[in-house]
Structure formats: C-alpha cells, structure tokens
Amino acid sequence: MADPRNVDIKDQPGFRTIAITCVAVLYVPILILMIFSFNTGSLVTHWEGVGLTWYGSALLNEEFHNAAKNTLIISTTATVISTICATLAAIGMTRVKPWRGLPAAFMVINLPLMVPEIITAVATLSFFALIAGAFGLNFGIGNLILAHTVFCIPFAYMPIRARLEDMDLTLESAAADLYATPWHAFRRITLPLLVPGIMSGAALAFIVSFDDFTITQLVAGPGQTTLPLYIWNQIRRPMTPEINAISTILLLVSILFVSVSFLIARRRAK
Amino acid sequence: MTIKQERNLPQRAGFLNGVIVPEQPGKNAIEVRGVRKVFGTGEAQVAALDTVSVSIRENEFFTLLGPSGCGKTTLLRLIAGFDFPSAGEILLYGEDIAPLPPFKRPVNTVFQSYALFPHMTVADNIGFGLEMLGKPKAEIKARVAQMLKLVKMEALAGRRTSQISGGQQQRVALARALAPQPKVLLLDEPLSALDYKLRKEMQIELKRLQHETGITFIFVTHDQEEALTMSDRIAVMSAGKILQVGSPRDIYDRPAERFVADFIGETNFLKGTVVSKKSGVATVKLASDATVAAGFPDNFDPTGAVTVVVRPEHADLIADASKGTVAGTLANVVYFGTDTHYHVKLDGGDNFIVRHQNSRSGAVTFEPGAKVGIVFEDDGARILKD
To answer: B8 partner at 20 to 30 Å CA-CA among A63, A107, A205, B222?
Structure first.
C-alpha cells in the first residue's frame, strides 16, 4: 500500500493531458520558428523548401554583425564586472558576523529582480540624461554596460551565495589552523571551491544581459543596436525567414549557456 | 594498559604495572587558568565554560571526557583559537596564547569531520601547513613522504580526498595535523564517524602515533571506554566545569562525585550515614544496618547522610548471607559471555549488581530467589562528594 502522504502525481487523472498541453504551449511556437528558419522561400508563413539560405544571408548581413558585436561587448563586460561585484557581495554577506543591516543589504542587492524592468529602464534613462545634462558626460556604449551590470548582479549573486552557504566552514577553520592567514585561506581554499558557483553565476548574468530588451531599448544611443533590438527592428519591416535564422542562432547560444550553468551546478551538487 | 605501551617519561604520572607513579612536577604544555566562555548576551547568556583551570603536561595523552554540551569542545576550540575566552588565560609553555588567531598558534587540530580540502590531493593536504609556514619545497616533500609513511598511506598520495575511505581520510587528517610538528595536537572526537572495528584499530594507531611523535595530545570524546583505554590522564567535564582530573584508574576506582561515578562504567549507589572516621576511611551505616568501611576523596570531610559507591566487579557473591558485608535476595542473573551480572535486592531495599568474570572452571551457580551475601573488596566502597 502506497504511503498516502507520498501520492504519485503521475497517477492523478488528467495529469498526462495537462502536462502535454503545457509543454506544447511552451515549445511548439519555438519549434515552428526553428523549422521556418530552414525555409527557402521569402515568406515566414509560406513553406517552399528546406535549405540554409537564410542562415547564409544572416551570416553575411553586416547589420547583424554589428549588432552581434555590440551584444558581445556589452554582455561580456557586464558579465565580468557584475560577477566580480556579486562575488564580493556574497563573501561580504556570508563570511561576516551577522549585523543589523544584513537583511536590508540582501534586499538592495536583489531589488532589480523585483522592480518591474520598465521602471528600471525609465529610471536608468533619466539618470543618464541627467548626467549628460548636468556634466555633459556621455559614456557611449559604457551607458549600456553600466545599466546591464546593475541588473546582472542579482543573477550572478544567487548561485555564488548558495555555493558559499553550502561550503563547510570547517574547511576555512582547518586552513587557519594550518597557519593560513585569512587571505591565504581565501585564496587557497574558499576561492577554488567557489569557482563552480562563480562560473554558474557568470553564465546566468551573461544570458540575462545577452537577451535584454526593455532597458537596452530605452538606454541605447545611435549605433548601439544589440541583437534583441536588431530583431525588433526587423519585425517592423516585411519579415523574411532570416529573422527566424537569427532567432535560432540566439536561442542556441542561450541554450548553450544555460546548459553550462546547469552542468556546473549539477557537478557541484555531487 | 601494559608496560610496553608506557613510555619512560619522567614527568608523566600514571600507572606502571598497576602501581601508582607519584605525580612529579613536570613541564606543562598547556595551562588553562580561570577560563570562562559565555555565549549570547543579556538574558540569553549561557556559560559554556564556567571558570575552568587545568594543566596539561608535556608529552601527555590528555582526554577531555563528558557528555555533549559539557563544554569539552568549547575548551578545545579556545585552545585552537577558533573562539576566544570571555575571561582567563591559556598558556602554551608559559606564553598566553588566548588572544592569538589560530594561524599564529603552534597547535594543530584533527576535526571531527576531518575537514580535508576536497580540491587537493592527499599529499597536498598533508603539505598545506608546511607550505603556509613558508617551508622550502624540498623540505615539504620530504616531510610529506615521512608523514605518509607514518600513517601508512604512501600508495594513495596522489588521490583526491573524496576517493578514499573514511578510515583513510582519518589517517590523512592526522598526518596533515602532525606534519607541521605542532607543540600540541588537538583531536575533536576524531573516531566518532568510524565503525566499531575501525575505531578500535585507530585507538591503537593513535597511541602509536603519539608514542612515535612525542607530541602532547589533547583528545575530546564522550566515549568513556575510549578515554579509559587511551589516556594518560582524563578530565571529566559536566555543565561547563571540570569535575575530576586523574589517571584512568583514579577516575574509575576513586570517583570523587556522583556524576563521575555514574558517567564512567557501571556503579552501585548505596545510601548511608557516617558513624565514625579516621585517616581517609570512614565507617558508614547502610540502610540495612550493615556497616562498611569506605574511603573518601582528599579535601573532603564526610558527615551525616552520604552516598557510597561500589563497582559491580569490586564485590562478590557468597552463599552464606550472614558472612557478607551486606545481604539480600538474588532477583535476576544475566549472562554476558565474558561475565555474569547478578541483580540483588538488598535487605535495606537498595538494588545492587555484582559482576562475576566467567571462567570454565569454578563456575559459581546461584539461582534467582536465593538468599545471598555480598562481600566488598578492600577499598571497594567509596564515599562521594555530593
């Protein structure tokens, strides 16, 4: 007789139907998008034949190249800076004596996750406009990097903090016991053991920055088109399956990063 | 304990062939003076250590024994430097180390969880302390090789610590803590994670390591058997206090307090009244009106109602009830293989257990329900301080 507290949800009537419906709603549109990227015709809605025509066209498209370049510059820089900030914040909040402001600090770091993105976007835009007006300063693409860094921090922070909290503190005591100064204990014990958390955090930050639209759309200046902005611009013109090809490429990059993050997280759980 | 396991160290007190070696004023490795440790603040204050003072001699295998929460691990952590005392001094060869951080103390620890560095090999773990001390590479290599040999782990030097068994991890943890040649080695219940057979092996191994390295060991355990078999001296702790310090035989045969007598081994407690006393021996009248001669601790003057303890093996059953120190009715006989326990209901109402070592010849046979006498060995009865 099965434990009544441990009912297998798979045995519930309708489970299979609901599950299949959910998965279909989530993935069928994406699947259709991917299939049409292999369409040789010039209409997204009309199938003509299988081919890589639009991938070739996308790869030769200079606007796409520029957008990809901008995206890579912004995402990579924002990932590096936000991961460093997140690592320092996580260490500062797990390896100190509990103090009164700790919950508040935790809130502040994670606030970008809870504030509606459009608010952050408008605020960031006004902030940069203010600086530009008051001091005549414009950081160019630096504006975007700054904005991305800020909202990437909580994403990078979460896995790093989780890793630090899971870590056996006795290891750091053991290092101190074996004559390691706090710096050496960090450098030789804490940091190497933290690497999977940092990698996982960086992968998350990269993916969040890579496909950000709302904030980028508002903050980006002329010539600062990123891939999501480029796709948005393309949709407003007569659409060709080139957009499907570009979207598929983006999707594959995203899947790659999420998988890396997941695999690292799973390895550390062992 | 046999003579072979004893080392010929003049400053050690203890037992040589069962004879008490008088305590000699040896060098103290660690002196704990009036140490208090309070956790929490205000109303929620808890004294984990309540003004503890104890001296640990050079080259001694010293055990802190007590139930969980008695403060033994707190004391060890204070000596290691993971916590700092609220009051008092901790002297290491005369120098107060209480304010120093752990990495400035020439003291190493074997942790209960071993705390081996999972991202390093066995050899790198063992060499870590020496590396942090800035020793030359060649010296580290030689010392690591020596340590691997000492704990018989040469074959596994290149393994990750996750790829070796619990017993092997234990050996690596020992080697890692011994490699920098600390003045004192602290061991925090290091055997508790091992199964029974491995634990027995490691007990002998630990004694051997202490013998070969000549380092002072401070060992924390809640296992009284472990403490009795391994230690030169034991400090029995309860509720943040040290109740009694002495050799295993001292602690076992001459417990000063009820807690010590109860925590270590099995004991019979008898109520009585002191009738007379002279030079360390008092005559006590028990509940059954029988009188018994009982020793008592130094610096203690027993009067009035007292508790007398008799170890089950320090008494014997006889068939003639009138010739026993006390008399009663045999209630139950429990056979344990190596020995037999006789549960006796004394005439005064107390329960009493007699342990009799079994042998092939001269088997004593008593049937439950029989009237029996119990004879105490000389010095078998002791008065407790409480």
So the answer is: B222
B289 — pLDDT class (breaks 50, 70, 90): confident
The interface predicted TM-score (ipTM) is 0.79
- Within this chain, do residues B318 and B225 fall inside the same structural domain, yes or no? no
Cβ separation A178–B117 shorter than 8 A: no
Q: Judged by CB atoms within 8 Å, which residues 143-172 of A form the interface with B?
A: 168, 170-171
Nearest by CB to A168, which of B115, B119, B177? Answer: B115
The boundaries of the domain holding residue B97 are: 3-106+182-253
* Average pLDDT rounded to a whole number, residues B365-379: 86
- String of DSSP letters for B297-348: -TT----SEEEEEE-GGGEEEES-GGGSSEEEEEEEEEE-SSEEEEEEEETT
CATH of the domain at B237: 3.40.50.300
- B107 neighbourhood in chain A, CB within 8 Å: 177
**Whether B32 and B143 share a structural domain:** no
With an 8 Å Cβ cutoff, is B163 touching chain A? Answer: no
Best of A166, A168, A177 to mutate (most B CBs within 10 Å, chain B): A177
pLDDT digits (tens, 9 = 90+) for A147-188: 999 999 999 999 999 999 999 999 999 999 999 999 999 999
More confident residue, A13 or B159: B159
Q: Do B132 and A192 touch (CB under 8 A)?
A: no
Nearest to B119 among A168, A178, A193 (CB): A193
- Do B134 and B204 have their domain in common? no
> Is B81's CB within 8 Å of A176's CB?
yes
Selecting from B115, B117, B132 the residue whose C-beta is nearest the C-beta of A179 gives: B132
CA distance B226 to chain A (A): 24
SS3 B42: helix
**pLDDT confidence of B7, banded at 50, 70, 90?**
very low
Whether residue B113 lies inside any domain: the answer is no
Name residue, tokens 């080695």.
Answer: B185
**Are both B51 and B197 inside the same structural domain?**
yes
Q: Are B237 and B79 in contact (CB under 8 A)?
A: no
Residues B71 and B35 in one domain: yes
pTM for the structure as a whole: 0.79
Question: Which of the two residues, B261 and B12, has the higher pLDDT score?
Answer: B261
Number of domains in chain B: 3
Which domains does chain A possess?
Answer: 53-269 (1.10.3720.10)
A-chain residues within 8 Å CB-CB of B103? 176-181, 185
Distance CA B171, CA B206 (A): 10
pLDDT surpassing 70 at residue B17: no
Taking the Cβ of residue A69 and every Cβ of chain B, the question of whether any pair is shorter than 8 Å is answered with no
- CB distance from B81 to chain A under 8 Å? yes
